[in-house]
Amino acid sequence: MSAPSADATRSLDVALVKAGRTKIRYPARLLHDDGNHLAVRAPWAAPGVRDFGFVRFEPGDVFVEHYWRDRWYAIKEVYAGDGTLKGWYCDVTRPAVRDGAVLTVEDLDLDLWVSADRGTVLRLDEDEFAESGLAAADPAAAAAAVRALDELEALARGAGFDLDYSATSSTS
After folding, report:
1. Is 40 a member of any domain?
2. 154 in a domain, yes or no?
3. I need a surface site. Which of 4, 23, 117, 172 has the fewest CB within 10 A?
């Protein structure tokens, strides 16, 4: 496990971009940045409750989000307000870019949900991905996105996610 970086207490904004527009931007606390893997901690940033049927995201939830500069996905550990792990929400994205206090991640529509007990693994939004036009506009990126979703699913169904820096490393 890597030691936390010297700037582990710094705040930054996570900007989630989709189709060239900022979908959401929210404050987070930087836990770790080793030059490739970044981990941030942030409260549920959207207003109100979002019930997906298989999980509810709600005020009080905490996300420990893992991003990489060389991977086409992000893995978000989702905790209830009482600290109970709900599961992992994985976004297929272009590799993360950090510019000062802003971490920008481009969402490519594909997602994966893994329940805390790993009994439920769901591929999400494949229809949105197909309709996005990415395969025609950027075939290499579309292929990388599909490979990333397959990799995430294989990890979820296999040994699980080996996250270098998790919520247990910093609970404040």
Report:
1. yes
2. yes
3. 172
109 Cα distance to chain centroid: 12
Exposure b/e, 89-106, CB count within 10 A at least 16 = b: bbbbbbbbebeeeebbbb
Q: What mean pLDDT is reported for the chain?
A: 89
Q: Which long-range contacts (CB under 8 A, 24 or more apart) does 73-78 make?
A: 73/148, 73/149, 73/151, 73/152, 74/105, 75/152, 75/161, 75/163, 77/163, 77/166, 77/167
Residue-range definition of the domain harbouring residue 127: 11-163
Structure confidence at residue 165 (pLDDT): 58
For 112, half-sphere exposure in the C-beta direction (CA atoms, 13 angstrom radius) is: 29
Question: Based on the structure, what is the number of domains in the chain?
Answer: 1
Residue 101: CATH number of its domain: 2.40.380.10
Q: d(Cα 107, Cα 15) in Å, to the nearest integer?
A: 10
* CB neighbourhood size of 49 (10 A): 11
Strands (E), the chain: 11-18, 21-33, 37-43, 50-51, 56-57, 62-68, 73-79, 85-93, 97-99, 102-115, 121-124
Tens digit of each residue's pLDDT (9 = 90 or more) over 26-43: 999 999 999 999 999 999
Query: Is-contact 32 5, C-beta < 8 A?
Result: yes
